[in-house]
Amino acid sequence: MSLRLCRLLLVCAILGFPAAMACSAATGNYLGQKPPGLTPIPLAPSLLTAFSYGGTFNPDLTAFWFTEQAIKGRDGQIVGYAFVDGAWTRLETVPFTPAGMAIEPHIAPSGDRLYFTAGSSAAWKAYVSELTPLGWSLATPLPAPINVVDYAPMYFSSTRDGTLYWTLLTDFEAAIVRTRKAANANGRPAANANGGPTETANGGPTETGYCPVEYMASDGVPWVGAHPFVAPDESFVIFDVRPGGNPRWPDLVVTFRRADGTWTLPQPIAAVNGYATDEMCASVSPDGKYLFFARDLHIWWVSAAVLDPLRP
């Protein structure tokens, strides 16, 4: 394969062309960084120089999207890097976002959908961009029950069967919820996280392709927190909480799904949580090898083996 053709296919990978899978980027995985062990380290500090969080790789690890803030705690934007001609290159154009602020991208395990939140603190909406033969489409808002007027949907993650996990943000608190794909045209809901009737945020079944919103819980204890990451097989979920109601230092916790479909009580991921730092916005690489998270609004990473001692 010629260098020119290889470069063309890699550029296609940036934009989402299926043909890009024909050209390997094995030497450019993980932004060209040496992988960490069981001790967290910053991810690519020479590339991710601003405040950053919420990173997501495409399945073949040739593109990386994340949220960047020029000023800590202020408006963010989605930024991308792509592996082209043997090097990681910053993408100055994001092809899928609407006008205005856009944050917290997530690429589905299948690689053909990209979810994110856009708007402002007064009117957040969830969006999805679809992979087409011409690259990522201009994103469109997700339907109800995800986008409704009473709350803000934030930080999406998804399973292989299309179930969405996300943060339902209201004026009072943030809760971890999920929305399954409807079983039929009437949106017949699945059982809730504890195997009982579905508790919904906005009423009965929908006809939009999604089941009603389910509030997640472990043995009757609600998951009060934010920024969930769900494993593609829905075997575990990582999210961040504020221990003891501490408004300043969130920690990461993990819960595992039992064989009966219920969930273990969330437990701290001690290997990554600091005493006077905030850890949030976790994700796991598509190959399952590395855990990424934001520490003080910079992206860090560590071997996903830190989860193994916590498994039931």
Architecture overview:
With 312 residues, this protein is mainly beta. Helices cover 4% and strands 38% of the residues. Strands 6, 7, 8, 9 and 10 form a five-stranded antiparallel sheet that branches. The radius of gyration is 19 Å and the shape is globular.
Mean pLDDT: 83
Counting helices, strands and paired strands, the structural category is mainly beta
Number of helices: 1
Shape call: globular
Low-confidence spans: 1-27, 184-207
Estimated share of beta-strand residues = 35-45%
> Number of folding domains?
1
The CATH topology name reads: Neuraminidase
SSE succession: HEEEEEEEEEEEEEEEEEEEEEEE
* Main pleated sheet: 5 strands, antiparallel
Distance between the termini: 48 Å
Radius of gyration: 19 Å
Q: If classified by CATH, what would the architecture be? A: 6 Propeller
CATH class: Mainly Beta
Count of DSSP strands: 23
Helix content: under 10%
How is this structure best summarized?
The chain has 312 residues and is mainly beta.
Features:
312 residues, mainly beta, Neuraminidase, 1 helix, 4% helix, disordered N terminus
Show the helix and strand layout.
Layout: H1 3-15, E1 41-42, E2 51-57, E3 63-69, E4 76-84, E5 87-91, E6 101-107, E7 113-119, E8 125-132, E9 135-136, E10 140-141, E11 152-158, E12 164-169, E13 174-179, E14 214-215, E15 217-218, E16 221-222, E17 226-230, E18 236-241, E19 251-256, E20 267-268, E21 279-284, E22 290-295, E23 298-303
Antiparallel strand pairs: 1-23, 2-3, 3-4, 4-5, 6-7, 7-8, 8-9, 8-10, 11-12, 12-13, 13-14, 15-16, 17-18, 18-19, 19-20, 21-22, 22-23
